[in-house]
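Q: Got a minute? One more chain.
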Amino acid sequence: MHGFMTPVSLALVALCSALLASAKTMTIVVGGNGTNKDASLIFQPQEVKAAVGDFVVFNFTNGTHSAIESTFAEPCIPAHDSNTTLNGFYSGLRDTVNGSAQTTLVVEIKEEDQNKTFWFYDIWGCGKGGVGAINANDSDWENFDAFVRNAKRLNGSSGGTSSSRTSTGRPTNSQPVPTSTGTGNSAERVGANTVKAISIFTPFLLAMFVA
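A: Always. Here it is, folded:
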């Protein structure tokens, strides 16, 4: 009857609700240590594990830093520059002095990323170990510790990259989201935006399955 949902419709709505509830937002603070003396502190934490549908938020809080996707073989070079088939996320340098002009870079883990490791680095700190990873396989030889060793071995202790190649501001598969300098948590903002988008979409979903 019109106005009632069939069991199949109810099941689909329940599935969508479950997927929304299971999605997580995790934050990597960039430059929160306030110094480059220990490059391993540029990204906190350096490693995260994220499932399909999750969001990883790079929250730039202090200093001048970047979050740039690379490859395992070339840790301190933008992914696209070492492999033209890749369109890695690229923040560029974010100048956040004394906590002002804070911004975020949001990376969504999509279905095609299910078995992928995202390797990333900071321009100034890469050669000193200022790198990180999303979903690194700890049991594989291409693990996070090996990535750190690669960055230091290939780029020395100078901190920067050893290559003159630079990114050309290419499109990315991430969503750079500028934020205000207010006290709101960036992860909360991303979550709110996600819920808002789903809430807009839900009436259309329901209308499709009303018998």
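A: The radius of gyration is 20 Å.
Q: Perfect, thanks.
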